[in-house]
């Protein structure tokens, strides 16, 4: 007869006894463990079973071993064994069966069997195990009742285990943390004796439930200075960002003579790293070197790992590497810390070299490297590494997918990004916050702002990164008013904007020409949100004003800045001068840039273009000669488009692409149709002194035109053409695509180095404001 656990619970202990007879019969001549050896009958109600049953226990073990050869014992058999061992007085074997039973198999009857006759140690172990699976206060109260019935209500170790159960249950999102912590505190108050574990458990519980004041009250109420409890309090302060309080606690520990250990040091060093307090962190480092003459290996490893993180987060990567190189033992944390240092500071060449040197790699290693490549513009390498990771047997997590999706955003590889999105859904990562944020950016940078918005609206949870990504997406596509509306909605959702939020809002205002709104948001940064504008914020404001031709106001802003203007400020001003032909101010901005960034090609190109537009060819020649003399080469313009999951790249005056001649022929036919609608090539964008006819030929070889025409040739009728360019789109190409979109009756989307242009039916989404 097969009996379920629930049937056993209903029938009670008698049924368990019958089962034990069936599966573990006593040897011939011996009675079952609950039968009196004298009377041969069952004992009267309330009498304890006989305990001199060693032969029966041995027989049970033999039977259990025999069974294990055939099949794994179920929960009924395990419960019966615990009952038999407990009744025979062999609690050690009962504990072994209990400890060897997986949590997933255990039920109420199983726990009841273990609690029927334990000693203090067993009861503590059982309560500790139960604490792992309790879900609400009711379970804790049941455990509390068992404890009182057992007579162990005054045993410190048992009470500690019960307090731990209440505290751990309070972490559950479905539980009432205040009620459970209140119950734990009542137990604490009633305890006749408390030890270090008691205090530490309570302090940790309040810290984990974000009640630092209560935790500190407990700490201050301690009669003894217990280092573990102080460590828990310091760790809580660090975790919640209260750096000053954490450092003050560390100082008080020292003054009170409380012994520091590796947990103390790692928490304090982490506090300094998170707050950028390099001098404080270095002082702690010096203190450790003075006081810890012969640190244990575990101490050295954890503290050195924290020090490596401190130094690189404070910009001292080379010093971090020195600490790493001197470490006698290293683990994944050590290696990944140095890799993260190189990646976060953009030292990708060193990161790649270090990655190859690593003796082992875990999932975090691959994820850091993939994300680092993507964030630093190495999209193709990021995707290759993602594929290599999978080949080597690593199942990517949502963060690894986020890195790969960001790589697609860099490349504009829409189809590849869509495939990764589908895989995310299949693997159950579609609710991931990091992956969702990456998808918003990917779809936006691949030209489909509608898909980005769909991801944003369907994400189960949004953080400030999500809102920033969507505001940036709308701004890049020229939807400035919608970006501002989304920002206002963000505020209504009580999401606090950060410095990145204002960068995206200011950019959106700049692209849409919303000068008044841009001024307002810039001024509100400090006045309303306590955010001091950085140079990048000032650069966006200058860009906003210069694009609108408000040079006098832009100059006033530059003069009123609380620091010396750097390259981003003068670049924004020079770009505006180039757009509006403000030669004098443009030359002034270029001269400052020559001083700050003499090797940057963009300054020479913009200045040369300004002279060329004004017909000052002698000045153009001087700028180009200066470039040659300084060994500066202009970054070549290139454009690319994706057809059937393959990226096709075109250069200016391209002769390399295998189908380029067919592209030139089709472009010539399209231009004939475009001229009928009024298109006239704008030769002022040919920045060379040559005959008019030659200038028209030069305009026809621009890379963005070749890529768009190739897309028209290869993609299905009605499909949107999406082209990406590394530099700013040419003015003539911008005009040509408006006519081209009308001739072919298709949407053409071009992403240049600054923003997106959507050409539909002879118009552009930028409204010619770019």
TrEMBL record:
Q: Which Gene3D superfamilies match?
A: Tetratricopeptide repeat domain
What does the record list as GO biological process? RNA modification
List the keywords (alphabetical): Repeat
Q: Which PROSITE patterns match?
A: PPR
Gene Ontology terms, MF aspect: RNA binding; zinc ion binding
Q: Using the record's annotation, list all stretches that form the DYW domain.
A: 678-770
Q: Which domain of life is it from?
A: Eukaryota
Record has Transferase as a keyword: no
- What is stated as this protein's family in its record? Belongs to the PPR family. PCMP-H subfamily.
According to UniProt, the name of this protein is DYW domain-containing protein
**Species for this entry:** Fagus sylvatica (Beechnut)
């Amino acid at each position: 007869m097969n009996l379920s656990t629930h049937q056993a619970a209903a029938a009670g202990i008698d049924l368990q006894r019958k089962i034990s007879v069936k599966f573990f019969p006593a040897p011939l001549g011996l009675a079952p463990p609950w039968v009196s050896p004298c009377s041969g009958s069952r004992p009267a109600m309330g009498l304890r079973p006989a305990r001199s049953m060693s032969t029966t226990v041995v027989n049970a073990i033999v039977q259990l071993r025999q069974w294990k050869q055939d099949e794994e014992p179920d929960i009924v058999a395990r419960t019966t064994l615990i009952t038999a061992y407990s009744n025979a007085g062999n609690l050690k074997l009962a504990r072994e069966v209990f400890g060897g039973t997986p949590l997933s198999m255990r039920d109420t009857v199983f726990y009841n069997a273990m609690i029927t006759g334990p000693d203090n140690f067993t009861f503590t172990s059982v309560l500790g195990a139960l604490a792992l699976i309790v879900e609400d206060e009711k379970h804790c109260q049941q455990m509390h009742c068992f404890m009182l019935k057992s007579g162990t209500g005054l045993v410190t170790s048992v009470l500690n285990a019960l307090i731990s159960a209440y505290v751990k249950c309070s972490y559950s999102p479905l539980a009432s943390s205040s009620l459970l912590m209140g119950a734990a505190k009542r137990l604490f108050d009633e305890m006749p004796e408390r030890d270090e574990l008691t205090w530490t458990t309570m302090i940790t519980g309040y810290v984990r439930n974000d009640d630092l004041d209560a935790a500190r009250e407990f700490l201050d109420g301690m009669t003894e200075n217990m280092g573990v409890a102080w460590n828990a309090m310091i760790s809580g302060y660090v975790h919640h960002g209260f750096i000053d309080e954490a450092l003050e606690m560390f100082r008080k520990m020292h003054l009170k003579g409380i012994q520091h250990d590796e947990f103390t040091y790692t928490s304090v060093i982490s506090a300094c790293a998170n707050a950028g307090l390099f001098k404080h962190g270095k002082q702690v480092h010096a203190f450790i070197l003075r006081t810890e003459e012969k640190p244990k290996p575990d101490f050295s490893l954890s503290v050195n790992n924290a020090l490596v993180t401190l130094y690189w987060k404070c910009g001292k990567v080379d010093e971090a590497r020195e600490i790493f190189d001197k470490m006698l033992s290293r683990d994944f944390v050590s290696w990944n810390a140095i890799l993260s240092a190189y990646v976060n500071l953009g030292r990708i060449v060193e990161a790649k070299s270090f990655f190859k040197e690593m003796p082992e790699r875990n999932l975090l290693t691959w994820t850091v490297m993939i994300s680092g490549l993507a964030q630093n513009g190495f999209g193709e390498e990021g995707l290759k590494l993602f594929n290599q990771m999978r080949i080597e047997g690593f199942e990517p997590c949502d963060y690894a997918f986020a890195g790969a999706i960001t790589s697609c955003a860099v490349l504009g590889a829409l189809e590849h990004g869509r495939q990764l999105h589908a895989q995310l859904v299949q693997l159950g990562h579609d609710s991931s916050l990091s992956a969702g944020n990456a998808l918003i950016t990917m779809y936006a940078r691949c030209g489909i702002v509608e898909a980005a918005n769909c991801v944003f609206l369907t994400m189960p949870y949004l953080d400030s990164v999500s809102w920033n990504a969507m505001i940036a997406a709308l701004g890049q596509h020229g939807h400035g008013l919608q970006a501002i509306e989304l920002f206002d909605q963000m505020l209504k959702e009580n999401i606090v904007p950060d410095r990145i939020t204002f960068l995206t809002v200011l950019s959106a205002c700049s692209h849409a020409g919303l000068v008044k709104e841009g001024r307002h948001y810039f001024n509100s940064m400090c006045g309303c949100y306590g955010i001091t504008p950085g140079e990048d914020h000032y650069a966006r404001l200058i860009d906003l004003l210069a694009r609108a031709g408000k040079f006098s106001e832009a100059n006033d802003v530059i003069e009123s800045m609380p620091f010396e203007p750097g390259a981003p400020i003068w670049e924004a001003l020079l770009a505006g001068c180039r757009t509006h032909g403000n030669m004098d101010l443009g030359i002034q901005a270029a001269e400052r840039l020559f001083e700050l960034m003499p090797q940057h090609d963009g300054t020479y190109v913009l200045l040369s273009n300004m002279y060329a537009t004004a017909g000052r060819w002698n000045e153009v020649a001087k700028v180009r000669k200066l470039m040659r003399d300084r060994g500066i080469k202009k970054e070549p313009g290139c454009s690319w488009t994706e057809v059937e999951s393959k990226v096709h790249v075109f250069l200016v005056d391209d002769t390399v692409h295998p189908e380029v001649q067919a592209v030139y022929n089709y472009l010539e036919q399209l231009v004939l149709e475009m001229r009928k609608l009024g298109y006239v090539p704008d030769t002022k964008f040919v920045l060379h002194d040559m005959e008019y006819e030659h200038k028209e030929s030069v305009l026809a070889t621009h890379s963005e035109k070749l890529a768009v025409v190739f897309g028209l040739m290869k993609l299905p009728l009605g499909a949107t053409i999406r082209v990406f360019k590394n530099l700013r789109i040419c003015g003539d190409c911008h005009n040509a695509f408006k006519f081209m979109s009308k001739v072919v009756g298709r949407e053409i989307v071009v992403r240049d180095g600054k923003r997106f242009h959507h050409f539909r039916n002879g118009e552009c989404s930028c409204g010619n404001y770019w």
